[in-house]
Amino acid sequence: MDRKKIILVDKEPSAVAELRKALLTAGFDIRVVLRAVDALALVEDFRPSLIMAETRLPEMDGPRLLEEIRKRAELQAVPVVLMGKLKTVEERLALMKLPLDDYFQKPFEAEEAVVRLENLIKEAELRSSVPRPKWRGFNGALAEMNLFDLLQTISVGKKTCVIKLQTNGKTGTVYIAEGEVIDAELEGVEARRALLRMFTWTEGAFQVELRPHERGRMLTTPTHDLLSEGLTRQDRWARLLKQMPPLQALVSVKPQAPKAGLNQEEAALLEVIAAQKTGKSFLEIVEESSADELRTLTVLKKLHERGVLDASVLTPEKQNGEYFAHLKQWREQNAESTRGGTDLSTRLAHLLAAQEEAEPRANERRRVQRRFGDRRQSDRRRGFNAKEKSPLSLKKSELLMIREKLAR
Fold it and tell me: What CA–CA distances, in Å, run from 83 to 8, 88, 98, 105?
């Protein structure tokens, strides 16, 4: 097996003598040079697996050496470590902003340094073994940038890309061509409904792949209108969540629950919950329903407010890592009777779908436009101006962030 090669750069060779000895004992091939320029001259022939340099060097210091290394394509995957005796917090913070793999504060233990350097080399080899995608892109958390924010930004740049969203074990995909949303996928759900459902996702992760695709157009509604509807849906969903227990709360029908005065769809949903007896959460009931999720959540809220449904909210100590175990135990205790759930669910879906289709589209359109012009006061982008005609407005910091990502 080839020996891993390391270049040590220090104006005082005695300062790294103990480290050099420990690395040689561990089987590394080591070269020690005094200046940064000597290290740059050596890399082409020596082909190091890692470069470790002192922060303060003559002629060219450690950070400048790092900058020169990162400019060379053949050295992009080589880990770079700096070492030194930085005395102030400001100096260390400045170093953390560099594209650095690690920093060692002198003096340090040679044995510990060997282990850390070995791990860096292994990580670099692992990254190199994974095929790099041919597309550019960026990713992040939906809590920071949800689907509305992403589509708004991509529409501004008229980009062609694929957006992938993940939340609660579900994956959704949105296809954009030249800034226009043309299709959406979510576990076999129809494209328009899949897109609208993903507008309500505020937890999880997203990945934007800036690449061409051959997806056909399934959504003919202009993106501006989809954004309007998505924003309205997002706000309605948020208001509902504020008026009811957490979505992860387990739902059950209260014994001797008052059923007088329930309309047809409320009674049908209550039958579904009572028949399942599997301790499902609000979120699971909504997602498993083939009816519109906003309508289903509204009915659940009403049933809970009337004292028909009981919600078992997990205590804080059970929310971190114990939810699924708690849910499994609940289901095992209450899984005696699950017959009849399918037919009742289908019946409920038809009832809710009929109710949704009965609403006049003209009134819905006017509500969409009014809400789009009067966005919620708690919006974290305070720069959103209700008087502006264009909905595609972003905070300057967000535009700069996206511009930087797209330029890479």
Answer: 10, 14, 13, 6
What residues contact 301, with CB distance under 8 A and at least 6 apart? 240, 243, 244
Average pLDDT for 238-266: 80
Which residue do the tokens 């059950």 mark? 252
If you compute the radius of gyration of the chain from its CA atoms, what whole number of angstroms results?
Answer: 29
User: Residue 307 burial by CB count (10 A; 0-12/13-18/19+): exposed, middle or buried?
Assistant: exposed
Q: Does the pTM exceed 0.85?
A: no
| Contact (Cβ atoms closer than 8 angstroms) between residue 370 and residue 228 | no
Both tokens assigned to 19: 């480290």
Homologous superfamily (CATH) for 5-129: Response regulator (3.40.50.2300)
What is the C-alpha to C-alpha distance for residues 50 and 82, in angstroms, rounded to an integer? Answer: 11
Of 328 and 21, the structure prediction assigns the larger pLDDT to 21
> Is residue 114 a contact partner of residue 50, using CB atoms and an 8 Å limit?
no
DSSP letters, 304-337, are: HHTT-EEEEPPPHHHHTT-HHHHHHHHHHHS-S-
Instruction: Note the pLDDT of residue 340.
Output: 40
* Cα separation values, 261 from 29, 189, 299, 306, 335, Å: 82, 33, 13, 10, 29
State phi, psi for 91 to the nearest 5 degrees.
-65, -40
**What's the CA gap between 206 and 407, in Å, rounded?**
19
Confirm if 207 and 137 have CB atoms less than 8 A apart: yes
- Indicate if the pLDDT at residue 327 is higher than 50: no
Q: Quote the pLDDT of residue 169.
A: 79
The pLDDT tens digits of the residues spanning 328-339 come to 444 454 444 334
All structural domains of the chain with their residue ranges = 5-129, 136-240+387-407, 243-361
Q: Say how far apart CA 172 and CA 190 lie, in whole Å.
A: 12
